[in-house]
Write a structure and sequence with these properties.
Length: 449
């Protein structure tokens, strides 16, 4: 990606020099040109800047420059500088996708504010592209471990080292961090990947039912006061034969069930309920816990021998607040996946939303972020993502007003499910003004339908 640069095109040498000097004093990086031909040589689809061009120029005029830039990448912001007689043509250019037009003479502050908005819009477009490229590169597997942060790279490297070692593993982490994904990744990278991956939630059923579900029941055995079973019921442990057994939330197991499980962990022997003798099992065991099992051992709520058997290799999955560099990628992944399920285009990532995502603590971790992405895909979180309090305090008044106006347009469109006539009625805007503002803020009305 190229650096953010303003390409300034004007055939009037004195005006060009004056504007360049003013913009440089305002902190912009510029390259200036007397005509469009030379400027176009530096524009590629990954151009990170903005083009400012005069309309009336010999040879190639500003409208032709705009059309050629659109052919390269129609999302590159182009700001047109026009005289009073060119205003109708400039309005048409806005409808065709030009970012803004300024009528001469204009104040330097007005140009600077327009360029800052345009640079921010371009940054978001390229950031969205980069996130989508990362999403494509990692594939659409919902169980894949996403993240480019140092902690996630280390976690993936550790998994790669231990996956083939065929040892039992304990995965520790808060609710929603992705412990199941880690377990599935280990299984997928192991020599057992073509065998079953059986998941058992240890905290959802009464002991009697859970024991039958986990260990199985032999034919002729009775479950509590029920009649003898006419045929054998295969438990989850046996179903995981030669594969991986994932015991999710293992801290939910009662002490009696922990004792039964210990024999499987220690001796790889399974006592089916009602059987006369144990049966050998060959499998890998991965357990997960959202609480500190060592504290549970001290409190007498978890068996020490089972804990030490399972915790020889322990993986700690970091909470989302400790890997904030991954939030935008994870959100984009969730947004694209949710939009595909809902059969609607994915709405763009805005500056307000980006700030909100990175400022939020995400106590529910990745699961909460994915649920938020789905609600955003449905248009239910537009107002939350655009709260005025989330605006950057360094923005000037014009930038804040523009950000609020864009947020209000998106919120209204979401509430109207993209129905233009209803949105115009709610906002009390004439048709031309409404569509001019959609073009200015790069709002695709189809994303709200």
């Amino acid at each position: 990606m190229t650096a953010a640069t303003i390409l300034f095109i004007d055939d009037d040498d004195d005006l060009r020099a004056a504007h360049v000097q003013g913009l440089e004093l305002a902190g912009f990086t510029l390259r200036s040109f007397a005509g469009g031909h030379e400027a176009l040589k530096g524009i590629t689809p990954d151009f990170a800047g903005v083009v400012v061009t005069d309309v009336r120029m010999p040879g190639m005029d500003g409208f032709e420059v705009f059309k050629r830039i659109q052919a390269i990448d129609d999302t590159i912001p182009v700001v047109l500088m026009t005289g009073h007689g060119d205003v109708p043509m400039a309005v048409r250019a806005l409808k065709d996708g030009a970012y803004d037009f300024l009528t001469k003479p204009f104040a330097m502050d007005t140009l600077s504010a327009a360029l800052r908005r345009a640079l921010e819009a371009r940054r978001l477009i390229l950031e969205n592209r980069q996130l989508r490229a990362l999403y494509t590169a990692t594939g659409d597997d919902e169980d894949r471990l996403l993240g480019e942060s140092a902690v996630m790279q280390h976690l993936r490297q550790t998994i790669a080292q231990i996956a083939a070692a065929d040892v039992d593993i304990l995965i520790a982490g808060e609710t929603g961090v992705g412990k199941e994904r880690v377990a599935r990744t280990i299984h997928r990278q192991s020599d057992r990947r073509h065998k079953p991956f059986i998941q058992v939630n240890c905290a959802v059923m009464p002991d009697s039912i859970f024991a039958a579900e986990l260990f199985g029941v032999d034919s002729g055995a009775r479950l509590e006061a029920g009649a003898p079973l006419s045929r054998r019921s295969v438990g989850k442990i046996e179903k995981a034969q030669k594969g991986t057994l994932f015991l999710d939330d293992i801290e939910g197991l009662s002490l009696p069930l922990q004792a039964k499980l210990l024999r499987v962990v220690e001796a790889r022997e399974l006592w089916v309920l009602g059987a006369d003798e144990p049966r050998p099992v060959e499998l890998r065991i991965i357990a997960s816990s959202r609480s500190d099992l060592s504290q549970a051992v001290e409190a007498g709520a978890f068996r020490a021998d089972l804990y030490y058997r399972l915790s020889g290799v322990t993986l700690k999955v970091p909470p989302l607040r400790n890997r904030k560099d991954d939030i935008l990628l994870l959100f984009q992944h969730g947004l694209v996946a949710a939009s595909a399920r809902l059969k609607r285009p994915a709405p763009p990532l805005t500056a307000q939303l980006s700030r909100y995502l990175q400022a939020h603590d995400w106590p529910g971790n990745v699961r909460e972020l994915e649920q938020y992405a789905e609600r955003y895909a449905l248009g239910l979180e537009v107002a939350t993502a655009a709260e005025p309090d989330s605006f950057d305090g360094d923005q000037g008044l014009s930038a804040r007003v523009a950000a609020f106006e864009a947020a209000l347009l998106r919120e209204t469109l979401a509430g109207c499910q993209g129905r233009a006539a209803e949105a115009m009625k709610r906002l009390k805007l004439p048709r031309k003004t409404f569509y001019d503002k959609l073009n200015r803020y790069r709002i695709d009305i189809r994303a709200f339908r």
